[in-house]
Amino acid sequence: MSTETGQVKIKGLAISPGLGLGTAVVYRDILQREHEEYDLDEHEVEEEYSRIQDATRQVRTDLRSTAATVEQQMNRDVARIFAAQEAMLEDPSVLGEMKEELEDELINAEQVVHRVLHRWEKRFRNMDDPYLRERADDIADISRRLLRVLTGIHAHTLEDMPDNSILVARRLLPSDTVFLSRSSTLGVVLELGGTVCHAAILTRELGVPAVSQIPGLTDKVQSGQTVAVDGCEGTIIIQPSNDTQQELRHRMELLDSAHREAVVAAAGPAVTATGVRIQVLANVGCADDIRLAAENGADGVGLYRTESFYLARKLPPSEDELVSEMQASLAPIGHMPVCLRLLDAGSDKNVPTLSEPSQDANPALGRRGIRRLLQYPDLLRVQLRAFTRLSQDFDLSILVPMVSLASEMAHVAQALATESRALGIGKPPLGAMVETPAAALSMHEIVCHSDFVSVGTNDLTQYTFAADRENPAVSEYFLDDHPAVRRLLRMVYDGARDLPVSVCGELGANTDALPQLVRIGIRAVSVAPPLIPEVKACIRALDAELLGGE
Known about the structure:
The two termini are 43 Å apart. The radius of gyration is 25 Å and the shape is globular. It has helices at residues 45-73, 76-90, 92-105, 109-125, 130-151, 174-177, 198-206, 217-220, 242-266, 287-295, 308-311, 319-330, 370-375, 377-390, 406-423, 437-441, 443-446, 457-465, 483-495, 514-520, 532-541, 544-547; strands spanning 2-4, 7-11, 13-16, 19-27, 165-169, 185-190, 210-212, 226-230, 235-238, 270-271, 277-284, 301-305, 338-341, 396-403, 430-434, 452-455, 501-503, 524-527. By secondary structure, it is of the alpha/beta class. Helix 1 packs across helix 5, helix 4 (109-125) runs antiparallel to helix 5 (130-151) and helix 14 (377-390) crosses helix 15.
């Protein structure tokens, strides 16, 4: 950290390129926030207790409604989560302890709820019975629900970010980044997260500069301060001087000019000097991403993350809702090919209605991707039917996430065939997403149930090196261009026989690694939309010497 003329410069980790200058908005989870605290007179206790009772009734009604809907659309086991939370709220000892806290401490309802339920959460976490320990997460969720009602929060904080904002947070989950907007968010700064954490990937797709791994960040920056973000060098400047701001704006103009030139060139195909055509596709998650992909010269969409249709809502969409919402989202795509990934819930992408009573001790090694979908056959069925219907209007294929076993692909292929016949519509192509060494080693079996293969090198690297992609403490082990990963890619390519093989991880945007991918035989990469012009330019520069021999 360095200081100059009142400005404070801090070095972090560059996770999304670009430059940003704006006003800091410090984001904290509702349980991390400092809630307003004020003292009560004794005659005000009953009125404040009524606020808690009203909030409790509202949350119980919401939980009951959610449980009924989930049981109807999914299954009874998932609905029990919400029923169990409602039962906890009905426990008279919970409200009794809150009333005692009010009478003894004479503080407002928000502080009472936060204190009492935090104590309950700690009690459960310290219990010997593992089942009871897991109830602590339900207590935390109840606390969030009550605090949102008491504080009048009806929407996610990030839904209404002011213009010219620099988002400052400890960590961002996919359910947070769903609400980020290119038009209002000029930069992101985080305490936690590596170059392949989901926040990094999504900010790159948005074209928003981002820097992470700045300890104590949310204590160093205050909302309303001016912050400069350098996602190229991995630095931020708090309260930059006028000279620094002028210099930064000049650099931004130069970057914008260079990018505009690259975008014009990206409209054409990416062909190496030896005449090899490489498709450069886009990773997207919404209609805005698709428009940005088209503007940057994408040859199609290699990975459409469908989580956004689930993360920002309390209940999963019905088949008709999913078709309607995705039709609107896919409208800008025209006749370009698009690959829709089935819902990849699990790990740090928790969908509210799929949050189970039993949380995996290690989510990255737990029930995520296809493993989670196989637990909820009705959820899988709705997606397969919706995507099949959409294939009548779009050049569409379906990707199965987190495949480890050939039996998983066989199950989905059979389900797709069944639903397609029922709809009277031809099956769209079905592909396996290779993200585990097991899948790479089993390609000869997996391809029997696949029409194409897509390699997710981010997770493939994570599982190859046993290095959590979200954990900065092991970032030195996350080596996606390591020979071990390349050997697995070669095994995938050879085992896929004549099926198309693409790379949709961050390795596909690594211009140093592109010659090796082309040498292996990869003929399609899928990257964040803003990176397409640079990747295409790199491919065109590949010559015979670079592509010759292993």
